[in-house]
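Reading a protein record of the kind used here takes only a little practice. To see the layout at work, look at the sequence and tokens printed below.
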Amino acid sequence: MLKKRFIRFIRSLWGKTVIVSFVIFISLLIIFPINTSVKYSTLITSSDGTLLHAFLSPDDKWRMYVELKEITPTLRKAIIAKEDKYFYYHFGVNPVAIVRALYNNVTKGRRTSGASTITMQVVRLLYPNKRTYWNKISEIGRAVQLEIFYSKEEILQMYLNLVPYGSNIEGIKSASYLYFQKSPDRLSLAEVTTLAIIPNRPTSLQLGTKNPLIVRERNKWLERFRNEKAFENQAINDAIKEPLSVSRHEAPKMVPHLALRLKKQYPYEPTIRTYIKQPVQAKVEQIVGNYANRVRAMNIHNAAVLIINNETMQVESYVGSADFNNKTDGGQVDGIQAIRSPGSALKPVLYATAFDKGIITPKNIINDVPTNFSGFEPENFDKKFNGKVTVEFALANSLNVPAVKVVKDLGKKELIEVLKKANFQTVKKQEKDLGLSIVLGGCGVTLEEMTQLYAVFANQGKWERFKLKKEEKENRSASLLISPESCFLTTQILSQIKRPDLPNNFDYTYRLPKIAWKTGTSFGKRDAWSIGYNKKYTIGVWVGNFSGEGVPELSGAEIATPLLFQLFNSIDYNSNNEWFQQPKNVVSRQVCAESGDLPNDYCSNKILDYSIRNVSHTHKCSHIKQFFVNYAESISYCTQCLPIDGNYKEKSYINYAPELISFYELKHILYERIPPHNPACTRVFGTTTNAPLITNPNDGSEYYINAKDPQQMQLACQAANDVKEVYWYLNDRLLKKAKANQPVFFVPTAGKLRISCTDDKGRSSTISVTIKPE
């Protein structure tokens, strides 16, 4: 009876002990969770996984994160055969190995063998402590804890990420890249075995200096693998014959600007995957570096290039400067993100927007003449004016006055809204301060903003943010910035070869794939731009100095465009030259060659022009007008003064704008004048002239101004009753258009002023005044 009670007591005690032990164990797991977080090196990889750039970990270690997919069967088998052949069979601890090691250590009085499993080694690497029996017991507990919370593959991955290789190199991936210059999944059996034996003796088996000793140790382990039938005989024979000639290499340092940008943006990601094409990036870096060396003699020190795949909007090449390591020239500045003036590079989006609003078509005429836009007097790059030009000529030749006129007609707000939709950050911030000069470079932009903007023309008018990093959310929702029809019209103009921004010294354009491009040169010649696109790529190029120093030779055409062409020739020379198709709503129509408007009954010179169906304006040409003139064509008549004897005829004349007439007269350009009105006609004032009469200021007068408190001067005239508008000119530059008999005010400057007033019939009068300071 007592015996049975005793047995029941023992069983009860054992059960309670097990339960209590289990509770204590679970409590310890909760109270003392294992910390497996490790600070890794940041790696930047290419589209195919090639390592482009590597940073030291926060604790200055080369500790590169190895992914499960990089652990090949060969690597797995070699490591397990070398370190822990029963890895997949134990629960973190190998009891047999512990007993054997304990027996040997006790009987021999010293440590002769270890019993650490891979799991226990991971614990030791996570919690480096002195090798004592107490710490060994702690390791055993932590090892079991690891096995509870992690799979075998994850534990093996931890080991491969933390295993030491001497100096500041940790992890098999770091050793693989720094010694063999390849990823772990490309290691041979000989290389895997070499890296398997180093961690036990990282000092005595130092790669690069102890290679012969390493080969002997490697081959010894390969023979063990043969005996254990871990690998096939032939594979082992080949591995034994493989020479070992390695040394430590520098970590890859490609795309430094992009690498820093992504590391800052994603500080906790050990591996950042990009869409960079490594061969393309290497080629572009070389081309940009060589080109910068060529133009250095002109005091031009830097360049930046961005290449976008139009179909995917993935960035395939990113070069922020010519030489990242050149601190003297600001090589560490990221020219792709730097805010610069675009010069004329925004003109294509201006004209495209105007096409969409129906304001203009390619053959519309704009006058490129000196014009004063409320104090703003733009000039062309060559300081010359061209008179009558078409819209397509104005864009292809990057004329400034026509562009400003289009901004004024369109409304700068429309252009600003388009740029805001295209995510131009500085434009958003400076919106209230921007004026008509925005289209000539009067705003801040970045190369990435400009390149994304030009990609719109290649993508049917859709704007989409470029993609730098893989595994970003694939949000392909794009906003329509410009219509496909407008994109086509703009592209047709920008793809013309006969234009001034084709480099004079560029002698191998025959190899160039067909592209559309536009240049830009900022005020003071500080920035040279050239941005081009075709069906496949959009390439943005900026050349200049990060210091902001201007260079007389710097221009988009002569400095940036040769680099753009070289890049297209290099990365897209096998292009099939597939080009953009004409949209159905882009139609041809006949227009008057003198105005670009629909011809009236008197227009004889007609040409074909593109237009957008139901969008483009349908203005009738008013440039050609019929006049009654005598047979000598010396006098014109109105219906009130036609000769009773019928001695007159009708003739068509071009009704030149007053601003163009003023330009022609200033330049002594011949044009067919409308004969003066019949002096005997008494319809208008009964005077012998119908030109506007300037009533203020007085011809030949002197006026004094206070420089500290400038006052406005009034301009006034009397015009004929058939005049609707007059044009005021100051020193032969258009000052302002006004209604007939409406006073105009301006702030004069000291000196002689030539003031002219021209009515909408082309009649003009001029006076001169002198302005003196008080």
